[in-house]
Specification:
By secondary structure, the protein is mainly beta. It has two domains: 43 residues; 148 residues, Jelly Rolls (Sandwich). 13% of the residues lie in helices and 42% in strands. The chain is built from two helices and 15 strands. A hairpin with a 4-residue loop joins β4 and β5. The chain is elongated, with a radius of gyration of 26 Å.
Length: 197
């Protein structure tokens, strides 16, 4: 740092003889340190988001549907609407989502797929599909689907999650908290986002 700021530290007093003000050379040095710390701080600021939704879906058969993200738990360096995550800083991001799935139909298994849509365009090779089994003995079929995407975003991009239920039986469901025995709510959708590069 001393070479960059061009200060011969042993030979320059910190304050001038008149008035006791910081000398020009030391002012330049302290200003350089300050600007360097600002740059380091900006470069290491974490960009992340954690979102969830506690509604349950009722999708029409074979119809692509937007997956809501109504609750923001944590956010830094992103903005968020009811279902859309807006990217402010370009980079490589990791996106992880999990979905509580159910099928209350007692006659048919059903396939449910989810995928990433970026700037209103389906992102290639991002669909994940699972079969949710039918109801058995009065208990709806259930499944947990977890997906992970790596995506290179430009500043100003946005993304959303979409899903489709082939027959209209499989859907996302939120399970409420329990008091006996006690355990917390299981949100229908959980999404985490982080910039990794």
């Amino acid at each position: 740092m001393l070479n960059e700021s061009q200060i011969p530290a042993p030979r320059v007093p910190i304050t001038g003889v008149e008035g006791g003000l910081v000398t020009r050379e030391w002012f330049r040095f302290f200003n350089y340190v300050y600007e360097t710390l600002l740059q380091l701080s900006a470069a290491t600021t974490a960009i992340y988001g954690a979102f969830r939704d506690n509604t349950s879906t009722a999708w029409a058969a074979n119809t692509p549907s937007l997956i809501p993200l109504g609750i923001t738990d944590y956010i830094s360096g992103l903005t968020h609407g009811s279902s859309r995550v807006n990217i402010q800083t370009a980079g490589l991001y990791t996106i992880t989502a999990s979905f509580q799935l159910t099928n209350p139909n007692n006659a048919n298994d059903d396939d449910l797929s989810v995928w990433l849509r970026v700037n209103s365009v389906d992102a290639p090779a991002t669909t994940s599909r699972v079969t949710v089994v039918k109801e058995h003995s009065g208990t709806p079929g259930s499944n947990l689907l977890t997906v992970n995407f790596f995506y290179l975003f430009a500043a100003g991009d946005y993304f959303e999650l979409y899903g489709i239920s082939k027959l209209g039986y499989a859907q996302i469901i939120t399970y409420p908290a329990s008091t006996s025995p006690a355990y917390p709510e299981a949100p229908g959708t959980i999404l985490t986002v982080a910039r990794i590069k």
